[in-house]
Amino acid sequence: MERPAWAPRSIDISVPSVSRIYDYYLGGSHNFEVDREAARRAMEFMPGLPKIMQANRAFMRRAVRYAVDQGVTQFLDVGSGIPTFGNVHEVAQAAAPGARVVYVDHDPVAVAHSQAVLEGNEDADVVAADLLKPQDILTSPQVERLLDLNRPVALLLVAILHFVEDADDPYTAVAQLSDALAPGSMLVLTHASYEGIPLPPERAGGAVDVYKDIRNPLIMRSRDEIARFFEGYDMVEPGLVPMPHWRPDTAPEDEDPYAFSGFAGVGRTA
Question: pTM of the entire structure?
């Protein structure tokens, strides 16, 4: 298999990656045949997967603009993936020049791309770290350089927590990140769930099994389980809802039925 120039030498390009599969769903070009094959297998069960990813991105952009409107101009995007058009720094810096963004991902491809995309942008950077090691994120030189943790920060966990198994205790990791942030900070989160998917759970389960096969289990949580991540936050209206219902720019009834799969919400600390 030919290794493209953008693929770091350290990565195994014969193994599918969640962030490259996501890139494929969004129409990106930074994915390999092994990623596309896994994506197509999952889409045999859930043809609307790209629509779900697009709804995630659209929600993220609305939430970033909302944060800026509320005076929050620092962003910590954990599990940020491969930068695609309309990324956090583009949206935030268009709305508030000088807004500061730190991306965090443990996928070397995502980190390498983010470095390339952010070159020359003094107000954005990327950290190679894992959500489950919050201290590595919080004490990284990039966070120390760009984010003032004594001022509000918007913590983004978009389409990431459903890749963390209960055994790895994602609730504690999120709480540790939240505890490090100043009052007035925000949590911006989306999460996959069987609720809202326009398919019987056993059919959607076929797509979930594809992720299990590539050793990246997809953990479908209930609305109540997802709401637990917001402990200590006051929910911003309209609360924890399907993505198209969160402060929409366009009529939710015009959305693809798949866009309503899973939940999105924003919380703010007092």
Answer: 0.95
